[in-house]
Specification:
40% helix; globular; 2 domains; Rossmann fold; 339 residues
């Protein structure tokens, strides 16, 4: 099958491209990896093993950019997809909804597919807007069962979680006695990313926030892919503080798969949206969690002070990741869905 990715999350784009390519699909991305060997971002490595389609890139360029091409799929790309291709969108669904020609293309063959792949950015308005397009054949691949708590929930055709390759994310050592967290603008996006929980749960403990904007709260700011791997492997513990609206996000999955001991914020802090506590899943996935920052601080202190305990929690973290997010399991799910 030929698949076009119209995604808005370059890290999942990197993962999806590798996965679909490994399943034997021909994949073209209107995103950061439009030229796989020379991606527009450095959050993940290049993918020189993937084919490059210069004629499709030229068609995208003529539209004026990636966003413009997602909002007006080039004729050349629709022709390339043929009668049994698929277009997979993320949450900027207005780019798909406002293209009558795209839906005419969908109606032209029963084998043509338009898919919404959720990634934790859906709210009631997204769900309500999806219903008319569900009637026109749009499929939905969910990433968490907890999304069913969103008002006006538009249903699902498959539940396929995020994935991480156990061979790529592994090897926790835990020699650095420090608590870490990776979030984009943790402090600046309060209350959406749980900064106040982080501040109270790690007060007086060795801590290091990572990622864009972390420099204002004692962190290094943006870090490389290689440095992220090093921090996850060598730091003693990871405090996951959530992101609203989302059941969980990729930073926790990467931490769990690496095997660093993970402590999660509790659902009581997910109050930006009325249904936030019911939507959240981090506390159900991580081996340790609490709604009370003081209790989370005790957990983190024990992880810092007790190597055997940390080793046990780290093993449970990785086991949970292998249970839910291993590449083999998720590959099989995508293979079934796209068959």
């Amino acid at each position: 099958m030929r698949v076009c990715l119209a995604l808005s999350h370059c890290i999942e784009e990197y993962d999806q491209l590798r996965l679909l390519h490994s399943l034997g699909h021909e994949v073209f991305s209107i995103g950061a990896y439009i030229t796989p060997a020379e991606p527009h971002v450095d959050k993940r490595p290049p993918l020189p093993e993937l084919p490059f389609y210069p004629e499709l890139k030229e068609a995208v360029d003529r539209k004026g950019g990636l966003g413009e091409a997602q909002a007006d799929i080039p004729d050349e790309l629709l022709e390339w997809l043929g009668n049994d291709g698929a277009i997979i969108y993320h949450h900027y669904l207005e780019r798909a909804y406002q293209q009558p020609r795209l839906w005419d293309w969908k109606a032209g063959s029963s084998g043509r597919r338009i898919v919404w792949r959720t990634v934790g950015q859906s709210v009631e308005a997204n769900e309500r807007a999806a219903w008319p397009f569900r009637a026109r054949g749009m499929e939905i691949v969910r990433y968490s069962p907890k999304e069913r708590a969103i008002p006006s929930y538009a249903g699902e055709d498959a539940l396929i979680r995020f994935f991480k390759d156990p061979e790529e994310w592994n090897g926790w050592v835990g020699e650095d006695l420090v608590i870490i967290n990776l979030t984009q603008h943790l402090r600046q996006r309060e209350p959406y990313c749980g900064w106040s929980f982080w501040e109270r749960a790690t007060a007086g403990l060795p801590r290091l926030p990572l990622g864009p904007g972390s420099e204002v709260i004692g962190g290094p700011g943006v870090i490389s892919y290689e440095e992220l791997h090093r921090r996850l492997r060598f730091s003693r513990a990871y405090l996951y503080t959530g992101t609203q609206p989302a059941s969980y996000v990729l930073n926790m999955v990467e931490a769990l798969m690496t095997g660093i001991p993970v402590v999660s914020i509790g659902p009581a802090w997910m109050r930006v949206y009325d249904y936030g506590p019911d939507l959240f899943e981090g506390h159900e996935i991580a081996p340790l969690w609490s709604d009370d920052p003081a209790e989370a601080r005790k957990m983190l202190s024990q992880l810092l002070n007790d190597r055997d305990y940390a080793t046990d929690v780290g093993a449970r973290s990785r086991a949970r990741a292998l249970e839910l997010f291993s590449r083999d399991k998720i590959s099989a799910a995508w293979a079934t869905f796209l068959a």
